[in-house]
Specification:
alpha+beta; 9-stranded mixed β-sheet; globular; binds oxalic acid; binds manganese (II) ion
Amino acid sequence: MSYTENKKVLDFVNQSAELAQPDNIVWIDGSEAQLAELRQEAVKSGELIKLNQELLPDCYLHRTKVNDVARVEDRTFICTKNKEDAGPINYWMDPKQAYELASEIARGTMKGRTMYVIPYSMGVVGSDFAKIGIEVTDSIYVVLNMAIMTRVGLNCLEALGKDGDFIKGFHAKCDVDAEKRYIMHFPEDNTIISVNSAYGGNVLLGKKCFALRIASYLGRNEGWMAEHMLILGVTFPNGEKKYVAAAFPSACGKTNLAMLIPPKHYLEKGYKVECVGDDIAWIRVGEDGRLWAVNPENGFFGVAPGTNEHSNPNALASTQKGTIFTNVALNTDDMTVWWEGLNKNLPEHAIDWTGKPWNPVKFDKKDKSTCAAHPNSRFTAPAQNCPCISPEFNSKQGVPLSAIVFGGRRASTTPLVYQSKDWNHGVFVGSAMSSETTAAATGAVGVLRHDPMAMKPFTGYHMGDYFQHWINMGKKVANPPKIFNVNWFRQDEDGNFIWPGFGDNMRVLEWILKRCDEKVDAQDTAIGFVPYAKDIDISELDYEIAPGKKFGVEDLEHILEIDKDKWAAEAVEIENYYTNTVKSRIPAELIDCLEALKKNTK
Ligand code: OXD
Ligand code: MN
């Protein structure tokens, strides 16, 4: 049975089937009945484990293969006709060679299996902001995750009509062979191919592949932006609302910031924070001369370890129904889930993320090999579960941005917060971002690397052109958001975090929003506008940096200091990055900012 007359859709599905040769083709209609059947089938085959339905209704656990637990940046390719268009940071493959290689790997790979056709929308179906994708896959896990993370259903085919265009996504699990794993993007053909993986970031093709890599390319051509950003709204005691978008690299706290609960005295005054999105923002120029952002996703694919009642109660609450957990531990006493940092009640009887019995006695939190959950274990939770989801979550036009915030994990050098001098300088600050690596991608953890705008792994074209696009966007808006940089991760000499983070980041957000309204002064420094310590509210802050070492105003002063020598070295580092890594197409406006930083730090 065919659900559409759109020939391009039918051709794509037929060609995919001819190649992969599935026994059956099933169109996903988005109905609860069909999804329920698929869940049942997955439980029967062992692909999903049904959790305690009283404590965690409609929740399931999935384990990936041990070789398939994170995004694989070195196997992720941008396949443009000209190598130069993918730029020097992306891995590139010639499109013809890539299609041939993918066909060779995928040929006949769905024999004896079912191919599911998922029509989905990134953004509210039918809105001006939304874009439609069709993903074919042989994985029920992918279908069920896509049904949480995106808006799936036949209404997406209706929105496409007879000849609408869409993003093609082909996914085949194959043998989950790490040596033959490829995540390929063809931005010139609106196509994505993913083979030999079943890990979310590599296979939920609406997310990183479409909503960032392909969309960033489309955005450059069409005059909008696809960014690795959370979006949050702050309501002030007088009822006024302001929106902030913030870019941090993977596993650096976007979900936590997006859902933060302000300290008690802010709540008592009437402040409220609401979450519009935790990972991706599509940003356009509004008719009113401001930038407007939507979250194209429909759920959260969050990092489980470290999520708890204190760090992010809203995220935890979001996972209590209709959630798929991946690579967390199973508590076999009550069929619930557990991960490091959830609570101090180590389960007595548990199965670890690899499927083996876990020994709580041997657990040493510093030794990852003794962990029950993988450090990049995840929850896929419906956004509507989130207690602080914004009423604007489903808004068709999105929300107007007052501020854009960049940030990374930096043990030293970068202060708690500073503001750029203007839009172009803000673009420079974003382009110069670096952060310590995390478990969200394969490779070493804790290594400082450049990650411009948190988009290093997600920009579908040349990084220099991407910087230029940012500069150009600034020229299109009469009232651009103000741009800031934050660093929640400053450490003392013993490696303890100096700033409390989490809900207390509200104190920094307040300063940021006051700056947007020019309600507070700042120090004009070599790197930008830095707060006076007196202007960051640290009242009722009860935080111990280490046992017996209480956070005080001198610690705040310390993490607001600008060390000129360190910044002189940072300027050299940025210059090296521009010259040796991005290499070409760096906008003149950014070179000017770099020269100014060098001069200011002499
Ligand atoms: C993510 C990531 O999953 O950035 O959001 O890796
Ligand atoms: Mn992300």
